[in-house]
Amino acid sequence: MFPFFYDFFLHILALFYAPIFLFQWLFRGKYRKNIKQRLGIVLPRIRIKNKEFVVWFHAPSIGETKAIAPLVAILRMNMPNATILVSNVTETGHETALSYLKDADCHFYLPFDLPYLIHPIVDAIKPDLIIISETDFWYNFLKRATDKGARVVVVNGKISESSLRRFNFLPWIMAPLFQLIELICPQNEEYKNRFMLLGIPPDHLYVTGNLKLDEISTPLSEKRLKEWKQKLCLDKDDFLLVIGSTHPPEEKLLINVLKKVWKKYPHLKVAIAPRHPERFKTVATYLESIKIPFATYSLKEPFTKQKNLMLLDAMGVLGELYQVGDMAIVAGSYTDKIGGHHLLEPSLYGKPVLFGPHTHSQLEMAFMIKKAEAGRQVSLDKLGEAIVDLIGHPEKRKKMGAAGMKMFSEAKGATERTWQLLRVIISQILWEKEKPNL
Prior knowledge:
The protein is α/β, with parallel strands linked by helices. The protein has 2 domains: about 35-210 and about 415-430, Rossmann fold; about 220-410, Glycogen Phosphorylase B (Rossmann fold), CATH 3.40.50.2000. It has helices at about 1-25, 35-40, 60-80, 90-100, 115-125, 140-145, 160-170, 170-180, 190-195, 220-230, 250-265, 280-290, 320-325, 345-350, 365-370, 380-390, 395-410, 415-430; strands at about 55-60, 85-90, 105-110, 130-135, 150-155, 185, 240-245, 270-275, 295, 310, 325-330, 355, 375. It has a 7-stranded parallel beta sheet, with helices on both faces. A 6-stranded parallel beta sheet has the order 3-2-1-4-5-6, sandwiched between helices. Strand 11, helix 14 (about 345-350) and strand 12 form a beta-alpha-beta unit.
């Protein structure tokens, strides 16, 4: 009876969220790129170049997609003839997959987890192995896949305290769901213990570390760095602060802080990147309403003496801007609704990072940065002082940036540990197909 009640529950949720969904689609431009595939109206063009081994990676959004990039690369290197598919939920996740996961043979959106939507695409792909990044478990998706013979693994697994409470509130859903998952690779012991509290046997859990610490980065060449500075019209005396992944009301909160900093350092340039593209226009309208002159990246407007603020209204360039900048603020940490984003990303490029008090989604990252002294966790009322301090003390910035790069170099290895576990499962799959071991 469980599938019946699960599907009934999903249909009730769909009816409840339909008006919200319609409003977002009509008035905010959200879901316009992914709606047809998510509703199963249009099946993506799935290219199965080799049916002998098909692996399906699923990563809902940006962070989860970037996390599996090293794993996709090592799989392609070790299995050049395998078919690698990647599905996402959000438009930003899909755009990230197209940029970061070029080793994949196909990129598409995962349909909603209703049987008549998800079953056709699972039947078309017939995956041998499904690898889920972090957290995005859907019963109908995984049940259909395992019924067709797929094995399911969760990599870079994590579970927040709020998710744990929510899952424990719905044990009738979670128990049948987790029975479909053969292996979970949590990022740390704390996450492992939380999974165990959900009834997952210890022998199905292996701590492998955080894949994001093995993130594949391409440092900018001196030539490219110079091109960026010319494109932005940055003078040698300018200081560039990059603010990544903002959510409402962070733009308002942070700009109020910056107004005070600009009085002391008028040469401070700031690039601000909203997390979701559907908010680009909203943020632009807000900036116009408070009469702050700003440049717009998509319009190829550079910084000027009158425009010290740039709206970064484009996807896929934030990583490069972190490298061009002198310092970064990772947002999502000044609102308790989010709990932080990829706090470590600026450290990957040797840049000092500031972030706010709300990091419940990224506790391990916040701990690592503070322990390595690669950045600072700063409350909103102290943020202006921290920015002024680091602008005025380049030696502190240099020391923090170096500490961040050292932190990354010492923490690597999650990809290799995860790959060794996957090798065993892949070998079993190939053996069952009467193919030679790896």
